[in-house]
Design goal:
mainly beta; Jelly Rolls; 2 domains; eight-stranded antiparallel beta sheet; 2 helices; 2% helix; elongated
Length: 464
């Protein structure tokens, strides 16, 4: 949702003392001020929830340019691999000040605050006034945009709700999971709404018709959602070799794309948020521009993250992948330092598909649907045409217990790298696949056919 703002001005005046927000979000960019939502008359009279530059959050109300409410967490929120559910439940009529605002994260009430200034009893916050207090989602009035994904954004406009209205604890895993049917304890209230349900729809799915409008930017539908979390690139795994600029800043579009643009790029790589040690998984990569890109799979996470050398350096890194070096395009491995010219060009017309078989320790790679070495991802233990073992004494190897992570990166310090990944969302950056291939697992959308027995790298895929 970077540079995207949703907006709605209430046409009714509801309670300004009792209300509840609930939303699910997945963060992408960290260490920057990002506003999730605000209701505002102007810059001196507003209520908002935001992440701070140190990755804490703040919930505050400003009245006549003075803070009437400020709660800033001690906890840091730096997980980019999963979804958070925030519930902000307000009732300023309560006699006990700590009961006037309750904030729950994944069903657990947050009670540790670095700053805790609760509202005075019966205070009317800057919200819910007809024709005023416009509700903006994704920014603070066209600034401090939220960078990430959102789902099931709900507002109950006249009651302080419990988090169990919006989620529940899974009886098997003990994890907090989404409720896709939301029934407020009393009613939604005339200003209540529920948007971003199973996609990017701004049509209100509550009992009201409080539809939102797109006030700027674009909304891209994603398969990634609270009930099925897909892999992305992990900004916390950044292992830069050269410290010139912050490579993390070049991750785009929900951390699915690396775009280092021009001359100030760094040499460094990112691992995916999900690694696997068993099962069969498929994903796609598009090296659509640049002269110094690299991508593949790493099978020694600790060495990969800690090395100060290139990923194919056999003295420290265990990985296999593809690298653009000058005019050549090479498959390389970190076990023996061997390489092979694949003939692949760094062009947006080329999409590489990776089929990883961790049950038989095979890796198969296609270019625009044609597998290298006549590979057959469905060959099982025979590993027909597996990339592993194709060069000399063997290009890489996998063993039982290895945990494998996809990676992408920039291999140079003077040029640029542009790589898009599709782990199943059906997009390369903001461009949808042109004609989705078959996928018997029903999990994920890809440009090319997913081999039988394979699925997307997601939480659902891990359990198929």
């Amino acid at each position: 949702m970077a540079n995207t703002q949703l907006q709605k001005t209430p046409t009714n005046t509801n309670s300004r003392q009792e209300f509840t927000f609930s939303f699910w979000l997945k963060r992408s960019k960290l260490s920057s001020e990002q506003c999730v939502w605000t209701t505002r008359l102007n810059s001196s009279n507003n209520t908002l929830f935001k992440f701070n530059a140190n990755d804490t959050f703040t919930f505050k109300c400003n009245k006549s340019n003075a803070d009437a409410l400020v709660l800033t967490s001690n906890a840091l929120f730096r997980d980019t691999s999963g979804w958070y559910n925030f519930v902000i439940a307000v009732d300023t009529t309560q006699s006990t000040d700590t009961n006037r605002v309750k904030i729950y994260i994944n069903g657990v009430q947050e009670t540790s605050f670095g700053t805790a200034s609760y509202p005075s009893q019966n205070l009317s916050l800057e919200i819910n006034e007809s024709g005023n207090q416009e509700c903006l989602i994704g920014s603070e009035n066209n600034q401090n945009y939220f960078d990430g994904s959102m789902s099931y954004f709900a507002f109950v406009s006249e009651t302080q709700e419990l988090p169990t209205i919006f989620g529940e604890t899974d009886s098997t895993t003990g994890e907090w999971k989404i409720k896709t049917t939301i029934t407020p304890s009393v009613a939604w209230g005339t200003n209540g709404f529920l948007i971003l349900v199973n996609g990017n729809s701004l049509t209100d799915q509550s009992t009201n018709s409080n539809n939102f409008a797109l006030g700027g930017g674009t909304l891209t539908k994603t398969e990634d959602c609270p009930s099925n979390v897909f892999a992305t690139m992990n900004p916390l795994s950044d292992n830069r070799r050269v410290s010139t600029t912050n490579l993390i800043n070049y991750l785009k579009n929900g951390n699915t794309e690396l775009n280092t643009y021009g001359a100030n790029s760094e040499k460094g790589y990112f691992l995916s948020t999900i690694g696997v040690s068993k099962g069969k998984f498929y994903w796609e990569v598009q090296p659509y521009d640049g002269t110094e890109w690299g991508f593949g799979v790493a099978y020694n996470k600790m060495a990969f993250e800690q090395t100060t050398n290139t990923w194919w350096d056999m003295s420290s890194v265990l990985a296999i992948g593809f690298d653009k070096m000058g005019s050549g395009n090479y498959g390389l491995d970190g076990k023996s330092g061997e390489s092979v010219n694949t003939g692949i060009a760094s062009s947006g017309s080329h999409i590489l598909g990776f089929a990883l078989d961790m049950d038989n320790y095979g890796l198969y790679v296609h270019v625009n649907g044609t597998y290298m070495y006549s590979g057959n991802p469905e060959s099982g233990s025979s590993r027909t045409g597996s990339i592993l073992g194709q060069v000399s004494t063997g290009l890489g190897y996998l063993n039982s217990g290895d945990e494998v992570f996809p990676f992408i990166g920039d291999t140079g310090t003077s040029n640029f790298s542009r790589i898009r990944t599709n782990f199943g969302n059906g997009y390369f950056g903001t461009t949808a696949v042109s004609s989705a291939g078959t996928n018997a697992s029903g999990n994920g959308i890809f440009e090319y056919n997913v081999p039988a027995g394979y699925t997307a790298l997601s939480t659902k895929g891990l359990n198929l």
